[in-house]
Amino acid sequence: MSAGTDADLTAIARTSMPLAETLGLEMVSATHEEVRARLPFQERLCTAGGILHGGALMSLADAAGAYCAFLNLPDDATGTATIESKTNFFRAVREGHVDATARPLHIGRTTIVVETDLHDATGKHVARVMQTQAVLA
User: Fold this and answer.
1) Which terminus of the chain is less hemmed in, N or C, by CB atoms within 10 Å?
2) Across the chain, which distance is largest between two alpha carbons, in Å?
């Protein structure tokens, strides 16, 4: 795992979201106020020209956002599911890693809205994702 990642949180994320293991997603930290995750650059996740695929970036954001929503579920909820997601891409990623920072914007009884920012290894803004998570009862 990369420096700064949390092995226990990563194991939990990979167990609860098997795609996280497939992608190589690493968890950095997780509280109800903010979830941080990382996706190392991997050629197998690229599109033409050696650019990290947008779907991989969206999956990173969705996983971090879902984890954030899960940590903010009401006591009587059983889980969460993404029901809407919008991504704005700002730049390509060709090396290093991508860091995701997910923060809740709205915590309701039936939905949770999360905003996730993605930054490359140099700190440049790669994308912003806004997603709505359904609260499952």
Assistant:
1) C
2) 47
Confidence of residue 37 (pLDDT cuts 50, 70, 90): very high
**pTM score of the predicted model:** 0.94
In this structure, are residues 9 and 70 in contact, taking their beta carbons and an 8 Å threshold? Answer: no
DSSP, collapsed to helix, strand or coil, labels residue 90 as: coil
Domains of the chain are 7-136 (3.10.129.10)
* Chain position carrying tokens 């920012």: 117
Local structure of 2: helix, strand or coil: coil
**CA–CA dist 42, 6 (Å, integer):** 20
pLDDT (tens digit per residue) in 39-81:
999 999 999 999 999 999 999 999 999 999 999 999 999 999 9
- What residues contact 44, with CB distance under 8 A and at least 6 apart? none
Chain Cα centroid distance, residue 96: 17
CA-nearest of 114, 115, 108, 103 to 135 is 108
Amino acid residing at 136 = L
